[in-house]
Amino acid sequence: MPDALMKHLVVPVVDEEDARETARILDNCEYGRVTVVHVIEKGEGVPDKIPLEQAEQRASEAFGAFRGFIPEIDTETVYRRNVVAAILDVAADVDASAIAFRPRRGNRLVQFLSGDTALKLATDADRPVIALPEETENE
User: Fold this and answer.
1) What range(s) does the UspA domain occupy (predicted)?
2) Given a cut of 90, is residue 113 above it in pLDDT?
3) Helices 83-93 & 117-124, crossing angle to 10 degrees?
4) Taking a C-beta distance cutoff of 8 angstroms, is the pair 76, 36 a contact?
């Protein structure tokens, strides 16, 4: 039985590769329920980054890749401009015990230009945020 922290995790994923790697790492942990969330960034007055159909396909592929390791998941696709706010809203809506994510690699310039989503997630969250390790003991 997982401890209270791992009872219900919200796990954001970006794409198929990210979902696969995140699920692979999480599968080595003891957890309860998992809600995987994919945020489709909407422009709100400006053009979207990619066409909606392509973005929804990316979400579907990410969920499928995650299920390759952890079949029993709930999924949420959210359409928002603010990725961090969307993840936090899903966590609140499903009453998650924590948010677990795999930090994405990137140099300081990439982090600066992207607004460092991981930092915002950790500092803005109203619940624990767990950074999953890149390597696991079972590897």
Assistant:
1) 7-132
2) no
3) 40
4) yes
State how far Cα 97 lies from the chain centre: 14
SS3 54: helix
Contact residues for 98 (Cβ-Cβ < 8 A; gap 6+) = 5, 6, 8, 9, 10, 127, 128, 129, 130
Name residue 135's amino acid. E
CA angle, residues 32, 84, 67, in degrees to nearest 5: 40
**Helices (H), ranges, 2-51:** 16-26
4-131 fold: Rossmann fold (3.40.50)
How confident is the model over 26-62, as pLDDT tens digits? 999 999 999 999 999 876 666 667 888 999 999 999 9
Give the domain ranges of the chain: 4-131
* pLDDT tens, residue by residue, 64-78: 999 999 999 999 999
In whole angstroms, what is the distance from residue 133 CA to residue 25 CA? 7
Burial profile 8-29: b = 16 or more Cβ within 10 angstroms, e = fewer:
bbbbbbbebebbbbbbbbbeee
